[in-house]
Amino acid sequence: MTTKCVTNLLDRFGNYNIRIVIVDNASPNGSGQKLMDYYNDNNLVSIIINHENLGFANGNNVGYHYVNEKFNPDYVVVMNNDVLINQDEFLDLVDFDYFNDDYSVLGPDIYCKEKEQHQNPAHKKLFTLNELYNLEHYYSKLVKHPTFYYWKDKIAYSKIVSKVKGRDQKVFAENVSAKDKNVVLHGACYVFSKNFISKKENCFCPRTFMYFEEDILAYECIRDNMKIVYDPELKVEHLEDVSTNLSFSSEFNKYKMKNFEFLKSVRVLIDMINKDSTQKGR
Hints:
The chain has helices at 2-13, 31-38, 55-71, 90-101, 129-144, 146-152, 159-165, 169-175, 194-197, 213-223, 242-246, 251-281, and strands at 20-25, 45-50, 75-79, 83-84, 105-112, 117-118, 180-181, 189-193, 228-238. It is an alpha+beta fold. The strands form two sheets. Strands 3, 4, 5, 6, 7, 8 and 9 form a seven-stranded mixed beta sheet that branches. The protein has a two-stranded parallel sheet with strand order 1-2.
């Protein structure tokens, strides 16, 4: 999947002034070394091999630091290895949007063929503190009694999560073709501009391991007056959970991990909001 993703980038954008950095996050199948050997003679591709799985947030932060320190880029595109950019004008549109919208973070239309679903925006509004407490309560139950809830709720989220997370879904379906600002973007593909790079040491909150990064990122950007733009003219294809599925021998183990990490990340955002509120009140 990774070589398919990189070949696609090189074929489309090899004549642009680009560099590709692959972060192998302690893959269990030895793919890091295989990728290093495969791209050994390609000066456009660098490989970083993490010796432990740092999770989604810090795995990406490693690549983000490396790119910024080594190449001083105008933009950093952070994307999953299961994302394909099949649009020749993608980088030109990245430039166009920056000059017209002066964004800090840009998100494309992310289409998942498997689910026949457009995944951006993830949702239009930030979670309220009350909604976050509801999520914390819900995931606490899942973590405490994983076997019971796995069989009870194998396919869909509970009514509480569906109500909270799905509150804007009808709006998204109607407006997926419209440009929007300061929405919560899906985590599979981001474009970070100089506006963001110059201010933020990390692209994702280093306190999380996996999940909810997009909500925390959106909160921090809106809090710090850094503009988020969703542009449906930018298009990518998402093949969904290739790396995560490889890491788990059973759906049940993945289910337990997902709920545990969601709970931790929700608590990070709750803590962040409460601390910010306290500081404002002083």
